[in-house]
């Protein structure tokens, strides 16, 4: 019975129910048809009974609040119906006593609770969004008698639903922010632990262990596959086997996710032996200047693409001062010279997904009527909207020497006068640097949710040597 | 370039190629048609680009040796062909330089390497086995033009292939054993770290973090979802939020998996405050006696079901001595009285899967012609074969007070004379105990791969207090 009471993390019933009630009432002002959202099921790992940890659909979590497996909710005119089956009695042997469908319904403030099979009677004119696991999108397809596939962009009423959900999830309510702050706080601790573990670590994997250990100890999960690498120039590096060598910088992009799915996303870069080299410090300070200037600019109404171009400008200016780039700042930015060393966007939305609502393509990231630029310096920008209070975005400028870019003969000839390639060689020990924080747009400007983690090179060095 | 050379863990090319050559030559003696095995792809977590860690199909890993994503191999008459696409050049920006298909082919000793699309020309009369991820079984189905679904038992030549692979994977070669020993050694360290972290931990999650931290630090993954719980009576407990309370026993079932997929599976149970109570020690010693006796009995030719019944007998005998069970040992075992407290099987096969080859149902676990018993005390037995040298099995007796069993009125009345229910109440602080080791069947008997982790209550207490 003890187990039963404590089954779901951290929420007392009524505040959660109230948060959820407000969300669906807002939804009801935006659509005049029912929405049915499935939670999804576990995905098998190497055999059916050995599954990956269950992660519900984010859209479901937003309106249902709890990580319920194989459940669905129906939202209609502000009402909430929960559809899920109670586990068979013999299940208690393996999984313990779990709350009944009715108990969960009460906790989340649902108006009624029914077995999954009855959902078929409530699907008339209902919109939905696809979940990721095959068993569930197969069920969605069968129940609704039309193809619901994760790879298909939503259409018709599904598209209307998607737009309505985007408009809600774009800005975070108090319930979301409470979770996002928890994720940020634990992620800050994880990074501090990673820095403190580095001097005695021999492998990247050992630093990763120290960081993820903090997240696991707080009964959270990583929000995405951690990047913990001395090869920060490999942007999505998923390897942890390199030895830490004298002179290496370690780039760690690690974030926690709370039990109800809210994410943090932090990157820091630190010297594995506790001291930046002069060249590393020079470049680090340029990246940090871009980071600080971008955060300074964040405020309601500001275009996020302008923040991106601000980062480009400050990086370019700094690289000119270091003698790596040559020419006029504005002209260099216009020809995307900064993108040789900063080939990604300045950041993205953050919420229940680390790239929030990226399952909907650019529907959330791009203001209606806007599309991705073909320009090399802008094509990877994931967010292109005016900022609004309550939005949470990452700010993550970087400097990378990607071999595939800087050794590309075509690129070298194209930028032969813009880059001082000989000077660049003196910065060979700066392979990859990124500094990333999670920034909330407020009425008056911004608040850095991850501000408890220092960014200055001195403070970083102090943490590594602590 | 450094990255490229070190891309795959731990293997130098030639020993791996030789191991794989021997495996496929054995396969060639068992089937006279080609086999095509897909590796699979990443499964999406909450949106397509945020995936779970990639885990290839175990059958693929057995013959391909490396965790290649979206690849397939064709085995025919001892020849090995590798089908996979080289990543597009722009991929290097995000994922770094990766070995080419041709380089991998050389490493694993493949006879040739071709793009995936060419596989369609090599599928005549080919057998296969389904992988777990939907994108890949969809491709299998399309390429072979017949349904290949993880939930469908193999049939026809696929069944012949499955049986041939079972006969190979049932016993482990030197290459497999080297990996299995590594997984065991790291898992032993993880358990020691968990014990050492318990006295200062407040939550189950903190002990889990200490244990999984060791596994992550060794650049391995957990082979299955860890169980780290003070509610060991919930057999598949996936929660870690309980506080450690005076008098609690912590049951930890945690195992590592090497980079090429080989697993360990260890359970220990320890007192969270460093000392077993007299009642806990009494029951612990009974479970340990069963554990030791079973391992003692393991030898070629011995029926694994006899090992299970030996555990049942020793547990029953011990529980009679404690006054919990009443009556004659043999008669109590015959009416499954032990199953009230030990409702699962004594163990299972272990290899690339923690329940090895369970994707094939009972094809691996059960000798041809044998089926699961309907008897409560035997129905959960996952392995029913005579043991052979080279088999790796778990031995995992336990004692649990599962509320769903011991509070069930029907069961209480059925066993009213066999159980001294009043005496049982004096053992309320023994909710769940399991002791699990990984035991290799050798020519002369057995070898415990996880023997470096103590089992005696005194040694366990010493590790917790260390």
UniProtKB/TrEMBL annotation, chains A, B:
The keyword Metal-binding applies. The keyword Hydrolase applies. CDD domains: Prolidase (cd01087). Its cofactor is Mn(2+). GO terms for cellular component: cytosol. It catalyses: Release of any N-terminal amino acid, including proline, that is linked to proline, even from a dipeptide or tripeptide. Residues 15-144 form the Aminopeptidase P N-terminal domain. It is an enzyme of class 3 (hydrolase). Belongs to the peptidase M24B family. This is Xaa-Pro aminopeptidase.
């Amino acid at each position: 019975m003890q187990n039963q009471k404590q089954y779901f993390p951290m929420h007392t019933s009524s505040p959660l129910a109230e948060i959820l009630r407000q969300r669906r009432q807002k939804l009801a002002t935006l659509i005049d048809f029912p929405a049915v959202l499935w939670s999804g099921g576990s995905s098998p790992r190497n055999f059916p009974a050995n599954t990956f940890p269950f992660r519900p659909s984010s859209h479901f979590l937003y309106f249902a609040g709890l990580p319920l497996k194989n459940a669905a909710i129906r939202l209609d005119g502000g009402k909430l119906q929960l559809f899920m089956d109670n586990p068979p009695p013999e299940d208690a042997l393996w999984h313990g006593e779990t709350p009944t469908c009715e108990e969960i319904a009460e906790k989340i403030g649902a108006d009624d609770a029914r077995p999954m099979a009855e959902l078929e009677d409530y699907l008339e004119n209902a919109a939905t969004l696809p979940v990721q696991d095959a068993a569930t999108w197969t069920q969605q397809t069968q129940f609704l008698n039309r193809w619901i596939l994760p790879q298909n962009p939503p259409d018709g009423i599904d598209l209307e639903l998607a737009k309505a959900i985007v408009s809600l999830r774009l800005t975070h309510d108090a319930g979301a922010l409470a979770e996002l702050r928890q994720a940020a706080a634990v992620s800050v601790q994880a990074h501090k632990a990673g820095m403190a573990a580095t001097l005695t670590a021999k492998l990247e994997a050992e630093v990763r262990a120290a960081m993820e250990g903090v997240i696991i100890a707080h009964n959270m999960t990583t929000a995405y596959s951690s990047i913990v690498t001395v090869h920060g120039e490999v942007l999505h590096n998923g390897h942890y086997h390199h030895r830490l060598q004298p002179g290496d910088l370690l780039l760690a992009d690690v974030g926690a996710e709370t039990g109800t799915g809210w994410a943090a996303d932090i990157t820091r870069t630190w010297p594995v032996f506790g001291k930046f080299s002069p060249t590393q410090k020079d470049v680090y300070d340029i990246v940090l200047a871009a980071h600080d200037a971008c955060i300074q600019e964040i405020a309601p109404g500001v275009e996020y693409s302008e923040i991106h171009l601000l980062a480009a400008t400050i990086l370019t200016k700094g690289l000119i001062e270091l003698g790596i780039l040559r020419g006029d700042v504005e002209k260099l930015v216009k020809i995307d010279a900064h993108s040789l060393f900063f080939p990604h966007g300045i950041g993205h939305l953050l919420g229940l997904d680390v790239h929030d609502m990226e399952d909907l393509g650019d529907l959330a990231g791009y203001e209606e009527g806007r599309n991705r630029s073909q320009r090399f310096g802008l094509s990877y920008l994931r967010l292109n909207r005016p900022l609004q209070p309550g939005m949470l975005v990452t700010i993550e400028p970087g400097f990378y020497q990607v071999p595939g870019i800087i050794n590309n003969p075509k690129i070298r000839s194209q930028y032969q006068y813009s880059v001082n390639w000989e000077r660049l060689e003196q910065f060979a020990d700066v392979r990859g640097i990124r500094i990333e924080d999670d920034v909330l747009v407020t009425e008056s400007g911004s608040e850095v949710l991850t501000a408890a983690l220092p960014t200055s090179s001195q403070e970083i060095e102090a943490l590594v040597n602590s």
